[in-house]
Specification:
The protein is mostly helical and 316 residues long. It has one domain. It is built from twelve helices and no strands. The radius of gyration is 20 Å and the shape is globular.
C-alpha cells in the first residue's frame, strides 16, 4: 500500500464521517412526514436507483452469479439491514443521547473483532487513543447530564447490537474488499437493503391496510430533499466510501471515524440549526479529534516499522 492509496483512504473516511454527521439533521426532517420503516424503505429505494443509474451511465455490469451473491449477502445483513433496523427500533425505547453513548463503543468492538478475526495487531498507543476517542463521546453526554434511568433494557440491548453490527460489517468488509470489487459490493449491498426494507415496509402497510398511502411522504418537498440526501449520499455514498477506505486501511483505524461523526453532528447543529454550543461539546470534541489523529498516526508508525523489518529481513 503506497502513500497515495493511504491518503485517499483517509480522505474517503473523512468524507464518510462528514456525510454521516450531517445525516441526522435530514433524518429529523424525513421523520416529520414518514415513520422510521417507511423512511428506510424510501431512502434505500433511491439509493438502489442511484446505484443502478450510475452503472448504466458507466456501462458497467455487476456479475450477479449465485456464488457472489451468497458471499456478499452476510455483509449486507449486518450493514445496512441489521444496523439500521436495530438502531431504528432501539431509538423507540431509548433517547438519541443515550444511544450516542452506547454507539461510541463501535471502535472498541471493531478493535477487538479485527484483532480476533483479521489478526490486526494494534499498539498500546492505538488502544489508548481509541479509548480517548470513546471517552470524548461519553463525556459530552455525561457532562450534559444524561441518565439511563428512563431507558429500558430492551432499548439499550438493541442499540448495543446495532453498534456490534457496525463493527462486524467493518471487519467483514475489510476482508471482502481485498477480493471483490468495491463497486460490486456497494451495488449489491444497496440492492439487498432496497429489497429487505421495502418488504418490511410493505408488510407493515398491508397489515394496517394503508398501502394506498405508501408514497404520501413524497408530497412534501422537505421529505423529498431529505430522502435524496439520505439515499444518494448517506446510504450509497457512505457505503462506497467506507468500502473503499476498508480496502486500504485496517478496520480498527476505520472504526475510530464513527466517533468523529458525532462531532460533525454537534457542530452541524450549531451552524445550521442554531443549537447552543456548550463547553462540554468543545471538551468532548477535542478528545475525539485527538483520539482519531493519534490512532491514525500510531497505526501509520506501526505499519512503517513492520515494512522496515520486512525490508531488513530480505536477503541482500
Amino acid at each position: 500500500m503506497n502513500l497515495t492509496h493511504t491518503s485517499r483512504a483517509y480522505a474517503a473516511a473523512l468524507g464518510y464521517t462528514a456525510i454521516i454527521g450531517f445525516s441526522f439533521m435530514f433524518v429529523k426532517l424525513a421523520l416529520v412526514h414518514a415513520n422510521p420503516l417507511d423512511t428506510l424503505a424510501h431512502r434505500f429505494t433511491i439509493s438502489f436507483l442511484a446505484a443502478s443509474l450510475g452503472l448504466l451511465i458507466a456501462r458497467r455490469r455487476v456479475p450477479m452469479d449465485l456464488k457472489r451473491l451468497l458471499t456478499i449477502v452476510p455483509l449486507a445483513i449486518f450493514y445496512p439491514f441489521l444496523f439500521f433496523t436495530l438502531q431504528t427500533f432501539g431509538l423507540v425505547y431509548t433517547s438519541s443521547a443515550e444511544a450516542g453513548i452506547i454507539h461510541a463503543t463501535v471502535p472498541i468492538f471493531t478493535l477487538l473483532l479485527a484483532s480476533l478475526f483479521l489478526k490486526e495487531g494494534s499498539s498500546w498507543a492505538q488502544k489508548l487513543f481509541t479509548v480517548l476517542s470513546v471517552t470524548g463521546i461519553i463525556s459530552i453526554f455525561v457532562l450534559k447530564g444524561v441518565s439511563f434511568e428512563q431507558s429500558s433494557t430492551l432499548g439499550i440491548v438493541l442499540i448495543l447490537l446495532s453498534a456490534l453490527s457496525n463493527a462486524v460489517y467493518s471487519v467483514m468488509a475489510r476482508r471482502m474488499t481485498q477480493k471483490q470489487s468495491v463497486l460490486d459490493i456497494t451495488f449489491i449491498m444497496s440492492m439487498i437493503g432496497f429489497v429487505l426494507f421495502n418488504l418490511m415496509s410493505v408488510a407493515q402497510h398491508a397489515a394496517q391496510r394503508t398501502l394506498v398511502h405508501y408514497f404520501d411522504p413524497f408530497m412534501h418537498s422537505s421529505f423529498v430533499w431529505a430522502v435524496l440526501y439520505l439515499g444518494v449520499l448517506s446510504s450509497l455514498g457512505t457505503s462506497l466510501l467506507s468500502n473503499y477506505a476498508l480496502s486500504q486501511i485496517e478496520a480498527s483505524r476505520m472504526g475510530i471515524f464513527n466517533n468523529l461523526a458525532t462531532v460533525v453532528t454537534i457542530f452541524g447543529g450549531v451552524a445550521f440549526l442554531n443549537e447552543k454550543l456548550a463547553y462540554y461539546h468543545v471538551i468532548g470534541a477535542a478528545l475525539v479529534v485527538v483520539g482519531v489523529i493519534g490512532t491514525s498516526l500510531a497505526g501509520r508508525a506501526g505499519n512503517a516499522k513492520k515494512q522496515l523489518a520486512r525490508n531488513e529481513s530480505k536477503p541482500a
